[in-house]
Amino acid sequence: MMARAGLTTERVVAAAADLADTVGFEHLTIAALARGFGVKDASLYAHVRGLSDLSTRVAIRSGLDLSERIADALAGRAGREALLAFAHAYRGFALAHPGRYAATQLELDPEVFDEHPALRRNLTCTYALLQGYGLSEPALTDAGRVLRSTFHGFVTLELAGGFRHSRDVEDTWANALEALHVMLSNWPEGQDR
User: Is residue 22 classed as helix, strand or coil in its secondary structure?
Assistant: First the structure.
């Protein structure tokens, strides 16, 4: 049987990520994955401990992929150019890989970040982007939250078909990024309470 000879943890996780993009991360199951390989569910348990372990592995793989795309997009850029590159890499990943993107939102145990420090790369990239606007703490955290909320909110609504108005979504996205650039360039000082 092709199953036992050809299955590896890497192949199982890669296939799960593909399946998540097709059916949705929330609909990922061991049974559906096993069917895709033409094997019994039990064959996959030699490679993953169960659905929770599989979901975590997909989240790690997806988070690393997204981080790498953002870091590559940011390389050599600062200010508005960096903001646009970051935003387009983020949105492009989410639209091309909706299941993987949903996996990046999974809350992971702190030990996972210790085992995979590259997962913190998104935070490092976000801070580098914002430091290019001259921001420092606590503005870095506040602005980072605004960026994440904007990007995540936009792509989540877009993926769910939430932008039905006749206005071109690309125009709205471009204007949102310009508004973010203006906001970051004029971040308020001394607003702590």
Answer: helix
Residue 6 has a pLDDT of 83
Tell me: the pLDDT tens digits for 113-123?
A: 889 988 899 89
Calpha distance 74→68 (Å, rounded): 10
CA 148 to chain centre: 10
What does the alpha-carbon distance between residue 55 and residue 58 come to, in Å, rounded to a whole number? 5
What does the alpha-carbon distance between residue 126 and residue 122 come to, in Å, rounded to a whole number? 6
Distance CA(72)–CA(116), nearest Å, equals 18
pLDDT in tens, 85-127: 999 999 999 999 999 999 999 999 999 988 998 889 989 999 9
Between CA 5 and CA 48 the distance in angstroms is 16
How far is it, in rounded angstroms, from Cα 101 to Cα 190?
35
Count of Cβ atoms closer than 10 Å to residue 70 Cβ: 23
d(CA 53, CA 28): 12
Q: How far is CA 37 from CA 1, 10, 19, 193, in A?
A: 11, 13, 11, 56
What tokens appear for 58 in the block?
């997909």
Name the residue among 156, 160, 26, 172 with its Cα closest to residue 91: 156
Token pair listed for 174: 């471009």
* The Cα angle at residue 96 between residues 127 and 152, in degrees rounded to 5: 40
Which DSSP category does 39 fall into? S
